Amino acid sequence: MHKRLWNSLKLTFTLRPVSPILIKSGGISLNPALPDMQFVRTFTANGESVFIPGSSLKGVFRSFSEKVLRTADPQFACEPFPNLESYCGRKLERVDAKSENNTKENVAAQIYRQSCRACKIYGNTRLRGRLSFTDMYPNGPTKTETRYGVAISRLSHAVAVGPFDMEVLVAGQFQGALVLENFEVWHLGLLALTLQAINDGIVKIGFGKNRGLGQVAMQVQQATFALAKKTGIPQSELWGVGMFLDDQNRREYGVSASDKLMNVPQPTQVHDVAVLLQRTYQAQQWSEIEKASIASLNQLLEGKA
Ligand SMILES: [Zn+2]
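Above: the input record for the complex with zinc ion. Below: its predicted structure, written as tokens.
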């Protein structure tokens, strides 16, 4: 399965701060005129600019997805700490091609099948993740401000750290994209659920989430699905990898034979791209796909699928 591209989703979106946000730069500023905690910056064609690294968003998506999965069943998401015996990457260390007449392909299948649901999307040390985010750059002007903070010790009620100043982003719009490859339909459901939780203010990004920082709005602009060409895919259906594999492969990878979304809206564009069929959906249609995929995830998590 991993050597071939069966399906993919690319979502383009904008992101803007609702409350102030702070994605901390890693370095320590030696310039006393600059805040102690600075917003991360990079060089672009237009000079130095604040930006939002894709990795900071991915981390937020993973940890929320893990929470949702564990709530349904603690076995659905491991704790991704290398020292824990239950971490999939550690558990799967011993699965290799040298033992039990394993081939490379069926080692890959075993690793996928035996990884928890969170690792199936986000990966572990034995499995490459399927979801990636681009870095997000501003679409126009941005505005940052300096805020002052202290950390109060819960024991002594005295100032434990600080005062320190931090540079927060208060205005601006960022442009980004995410790509999900070789997905099962329930992956879409988790993605959609996390997007909703972000827009509801339940999930925040960056530093100071308990200080009222980190609330953002993410607006999907366009969704582009690519599906491997296979006769008989109706335009009203979106297929997960389970639909593309044969019975033996399905068993090996542990994917479902009814891995599809039905009654999806008509795409605005269909392109033939060599071995792939590319379908483009606008924001309105995407929100219908979101609803359908969340409903399908619900069924799965309640054990009805
Ligand atoms: Zn895992």
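Notes for the reader.
The pocket of zinc ion is lined by residues 78, 88, 115-116, 118-119, 124 (CB under 6 Å).
The chain has one domain: 7-301.
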